[in-house]
Each structure stands twice: as C-alpha cells, then as structure tokens.
Amino acid sequence: MPRQNIELRIRRQDSPTGPSRWEEFVLPWQPSMNVISCLMEIRKNPVTKQGQKTTPVHWESSCLEEVCGACTMLVNGKPRQSCTALVDNMPDGPITLEPLTKFPVVRDLQVDRKPMFEALKIVKAWVPIDGTYDLGPGPKLSQSEQETSYAFSRCMTCGCCMEVCPQYNTRSDFIGPAPLGQVRLFNAHPTGRMNAHERLDAIMGRGGIVDCGNAQNCVEACPKEIPLTEALGELGKQTTVYWLKNLLNK
Amino acid sequence: MNLTDRQYFALKRAHSLTGVVPIGLFLLEHLFTNSKALQGEAAFNAAAAELARIPYVGAIEALGIWLPIAFHMVLGVIIATTGQANLGKHGYARNWQYTLQRVSGVLLVFYILFHTWMTRFDSDYLNSVSAYAFVGEQISNPAVFAFYVVGIVSACWHLGNGLFGFAIHWGLATGRQAQRNASRFAMAVFLVLTIVGLNSLLAFAGKGIYPDWLTKPHGAEHGPVVYEGGQH
C-alpha cells in the first residue's frame, strides 16, 4: 500500500563554508513521485514539518533520465541520482537527502564536481584529432571492442564511485576511479591509442593508479554498471608493461 | 620528500612486490620451520640451528628479511593514513577486506616488533638452551598466547589478501572472473596458512594436531623421522 505522506529529512547548508543543519518536511503522496518532484513540491511552499517558514531547498538537476549525473546526492545514505530515486521503491519511513561528502558543497544539495573534471584534463580523457588537414575516417572497431568501450563511455562523471572510494579523500591525492575508467576507454580507442603513453604517464605519479587501494566499492556504487575494477586491473597491466619497457629500453 | 612521478610509482610497486618476495616467501619458510615443532622439541631446535648455519645468514637476514620488512612497514603505515575507512556506510565484502588489510598491517607492526625482540634479540632467548622450550614458556602466559594468535592470523591474512591486491596492481588479474579467482585463491592461502600457523603455535604448547594419516608420507611404512639430540 502506498504511503499517504512523504517525509523528507534534508541536510541544508546556506553557503559553501557555512554550517549545515537538518530540516524535515512532510508532503502528500502523489503517484510516481521521485526525489526531485518531492523537492519541487517543497519549493512551492517551503514550510518545514514543524510549520516554520524556510528557504526553498536548492539542488541541481538536468536530464531527469539518469544520463547527466547532475542530480547525484546521498539518498538514504547511498550516492545515486535523485531523478531515478522513485519514492514508491523506497522503504517506509523518512527519506534522507544529503549532498555528496567528497565534493565541496555549493548550497544545500548541490556540490561542485569540478575536481572530477579537472582530473579528466590531467589524464587527457579525449582523442586529439585537431589539425590542418582531414585525417579521414579512423580504423573500425570489432563488435566486442565496441561493447567493452561502450560500457566505459556510459560514464556521466556523477561522482558515485568517488563518493564511496576510501582512497578518494582530502588526505590522499588519488584522482579516483571515474577518470581512470576514461583512461581505459581512450587507450582502447584505435585513434586514442596513439597517445596511450601520455595518459599512462599522467596516471603513473602521485594520485595515479598506484594509489588505488582495491576496496572495489566503485564498481558496487556505479549506477551505470561500468566495470571500473576491470579498468583498474587493465591499467595496472598497461602501466606495468610501460614501466618495465622504459626501464629496459631507456 | 620530493619524489618524481616515476620514483613514486616505483616505490609503490616495490611495496607491492616486497610483500610477496621476499616477505611472503619468508613467511612460508617461517611457518614451515615452526611446523617442525609438531615433531617435537629436538626436531624444532635442530631446524632452528640449521637455519643459523645457512651460508651468508647475516646478510640474508639483514637484506632479505629486515630491510624489506622495514620498508614495507614504513610505506604501509603511510599508505594506511591516506585511506578513509567507510565500512559503516558501505559494508561491501571487498571493503571489509580493504579495511582488514590495513588493520592487520598496523597490528603486524606491533606484533613483529614484539616477536622479533622476544625471539631474536632478548638475552634470555639468546642464552636459552632450547628455543622450543623458551617459546613454550612464553606462550604459557595467556596474554602472550593471545597476541601470538592475533599476530599469526594477521600475518596470514595480510599475505593472503595481499596477493589479491598484488594480482590487480601488477595487472595479472584484469577481468571480472580473473579477479574473482584471484580473490578465491587469496582466501584459500589465508585459510591454509592460518591453520598451519596456529597448529604450529599449539605445538609449542605441546597441543599441536599431528595425526599419522596426515603426516606420514603416502605409501611409506614409517612415521615422521625421529630426530636424535638435535641441539647443534
């Protein structure tokens, strides 16, 4: 039987450096609600469960179909996209919403995922094709290579894997699983492969592949079921071979 | 410390490698020699004396055991401080194993310091007539016995589970099934070594489990070789 009311406990924070506080809200149940439609209901009439007037809860969202990653937050303590967090699929009792803890909070439930995007720049997660003449079509990929690469291409830099990674924190330089998955993707690309050594160079220092602790939480948390731990193993192999080649050939 | 990227990489890989060779190999040898205690006081003392007669023993001990362990310890503690355990929030099996790897490592720092002092440098030990009797006397104290149990289980866990990390770090196990197999192998190593280790500990208390069917060579008429007066 669907619930009559939806109770929300939300961790609020007015500014990036300000203190955080909990606020509770109650709203009437409607069919097919997700966390975002709950937040939109609160925005219409921002009054807490205790009847106190408050500011509308701030959050970030865009695609509403779990492909952009913008609305990622902790729903009942687990990192996930709030757009696909359907109220009817959640256990009874209040629903807890918190911002991700591994990224700086902008306001309320919105965080700045910039560290991940910066890491993508560090590892050169792209295929350089700019030039002065037409390079023509690239080589073809086999069906099985396409399938493996497709899995990694689904990454939306949502940050779930970073949130659960015990090695990704303020005490460590580790760049986290998501950017490493992209190194795996672009090093497998027939054109991207030409710059594979540049990406390997980028992940063979402080904060790179050797800072992974093999807790393998990343693969459990990834909403896109990206085989991140396979990428980490594969990059372990690529860096080993590259390192030994350099040691022996230089 | 200012390290270049490549030096940092090499140090981390050296940490992974030293855990297996030579430290892992040394643990196997150590448990093998300890198991001699199952054959009695004379057998163990003879084995210990034989080890002391290995050519270049001083160099092997310093460069093959102490130096790698000291390196693995120092870097290991530094690595442990860069982690942020989150078992409470994300209690996946692998996360437990990740956390236990660090906990066992830190326990081992204390255990190895204690164990090395007591059975390598302590003057009472060096002057004792029988190493077997000395250890037996030590573990008659329940607290010391318990610490030995913790130390043995931690060491076996750290090596067993460490092999899983080794397989991934070096890229030996990349696919999902390969990693699953590596994990099973690692847990099997942990279990077997723990049983062997704890049984040898019990042997020093005269309570080791040593049935004929397990220990007689297959098809042989005789039982374990009886050592005679193996002091030196």
Plain-language structure description:
Chain B: Pfam families: Sdh_cyt. Chain B: GO terms for molecular function: metal ion binding. The complex is a heterodimer of chains A (250) and B (232). Chain A has helices spanning 35-44, 114-122, 143-153, 160-164, 177-188, 196-203, 217-221, 228-249; strands spanning 5-13, 20-28, 72-75, 78-81, 95-98, 105-107, 110-111. Chain A is of the alpha+beta class. Chain A folds into 2 domains: 5-111, Roll (Ubiquitin-like (UB roll)); 114-249, Fumarate Reductase Iron-sulfur Protein, Chain B, domain 2 (Orthogonal Bundle), CATH 1.10.1060. In chain A, the strands form 2 sheets. Chain A has a 5-stranded mixed β-sheet. Chain A has a two-stranded antiparallel ribbon with strand order 6-7. The radius of gyration of chain A is 21 Å and the shape is elongated. The model of chain A has no long low-confidence stretch (mean pLDDT 96). By secondary structure, chain B is an all-alpha fold. Chain B has a single domain (11-81, 94-211), classed as Fumarate reductase/succinate dehydrogenase, transmembrane subunit (3 helical TM bundles of succinate and fumarate reductases, Up-down Bundle). Chain B contains 10 helices and no strands. The radius of gyration of chain B is 19 Å and the shape is globular. The model of chain B has no long low-confidence stretch (mean pLDDT 93).
- Write down the secondary-structure element order of chain B: HHHHHHHHHH
- Largest interface, counted by CB within 8 Å of the partner chain's CB: A-B, 37 and 37 residues
The helix content of chain A, as a percent range, equals 25-40%
What is the count of DSSP helices of chain A, taking H or I runs of 4+ residues?
A: 8
Q: What is the CATH level 1 assignment of the largest domain in chain A?
A: Mainly Alpha
- The named CATH superfamily of chain B: Fumarate reductase/succinate dehydrogenase, transmembrane subunit
SSE pattern of chain A: EEHEEEEEHHHHHHH
Cofactor (chain A): [2Fe-2S] cluster; [3Fe-4S] cluster; [4Fe-4S] cluster
Family (chain A): Belongs to the succinate dehydrogenase/fumarate reductase iron-sulfur protein family.
EC number (chain A): 1.3.5.1
Keywords (chain A): 2Fe-2S, 3Fe-4S, 4Fe-4S, Iron, Iron-sulfur, Metal-binding, Oxidoreductase, Tricarboxylic acid cycle
